[in-house]
Every structure is written in C-alpha cells, then in structure tokens.
Design goal:
Blueprint: H1 51-62, H2 66-79, H3 84-96, H4 100-113, H5 118-129, H6 138-150, H7 156-167
Helix pairs in contact: 1-2, 1-3, 2-3, 3-4, 4-5, 5-6, 6-7
C-alpha cells in the first residue's frame, strides 16, 4: 500500500502576516511594523438581504412547497421589512393555501411600501374581482388593474380583458 502524505498546511489570507506596504511619503522606505496599515475606502452599497430568501420563496412556491415558501418569505421580511417583493410572495403563498384575508394584508403592505408596484396591484385586484370578501368588487378591481396597466404590468391588460368578458363592462 502506498502512504498518502498529508497536504502541506497553507495559511489562510486572514492568518497570514503580510509585509508592510510602501509608504505614500516621498521616500520609498517601508513603514515600521508597528505603524498600522491604512484602511481602504469602501463605498457603501445598498444591500438587499431579502433577495436570496425571495428567490427561494419563488422556487418553493412554484414547486408546490408552500410551507417552505412561507418560511422563506417570512425570513426575507425579517431581513428587510421594507421589501415589497417579500410581501408580494407572502401574499401569493397565503392565497394559494386559502388564507385570503392574510394574503390581502400582505398585498396591501406591498402596495403600502411601494404604491407603484404593479404586480401587487394586480394580485390585490384579483382578490377583489373574485369576491373573496363577499360580493365581487368589480370597480375596485378595475381601478387596480388599470393602475397596474399604466405602470407597465404585462398581466394587467389581460386581467382587464378577463374582467370585461366576465361582466360585459
């Protein structure tokens, strides 16, 4: 049998001590080891910590894994309570499992966070059009579909056509 030699340990960049950088002074001497290195300027970027959870939520929802989707969207909301996308996904998932009242609250929250969020307007419009809160509220649904259509949602015109065919408006 052949013996396998253990791999040589390579220090990670975090544990490795780097030589001092040249000074920005006029001479080219290295800084003394006791002088700290300059901190690089880092531009703060707008982070979207809810995004990975939103993607997971969509994947779970499309695969019929509603409980996993709910967990992903709730995690997204914990990471970013201002994520209209997370509330939209939460509302869609809640509607798919029959929790329409909670879905409505989630869609309303998405619209509250982003009044120009056409997908949330369309989904909210469908709740009203389908009469989930008593009688269908056609005028409210039409208003939401028109608003979403003006904002460029590709499904809003289809929703408007559907409403017209159902009620001959």
């Amino acid at each position: 049998m052949q013996k396998i030699k253990p791999e040589k340990h390579v220090p990670s960049p975090r544990s490795h001590t780097f030589p001092a950088l040249p000074s920005s002074r006029t001479n080219t001497e290295a800084r003394p080891p006791t002088e700290p290195l300059p901190t690089p300027q880092v531009t703060e970027q707008k982070k979207q910590p809810a995004k990975p959870h939103n993607k997971l939520g969509w994947r779970f929802l499309l695969n019929g894994q509603t409980q996993a989707a709910l967990a992903a969207y709730r995690q997204a909301i914990r990471h970013n309570p201002q994520s209209a996308n997370a509330y939209l996904g939460l509302g869609m998932t809640l509607k798919s499992i029959g929790k329409v009242g909670m879905a409505k609250k989630a869609f309303l929250k998405a619209v509250d966070l982003d009044p120009r969020f056409p997908s949330a307007l369309v989904h909210l419009g469908y709740l009203y059009a389908e009469g989930h809160f008593g009688q269908p509220q056609t005028q409210t649904a039409l208003k939401l579909f028109r608003q979403a259509s003006e904002l460029g949602d590709p499904f809003a015109p289809i929703a408007l056509l559907d409403m017209k065919s159902r009620s001959k408006i």
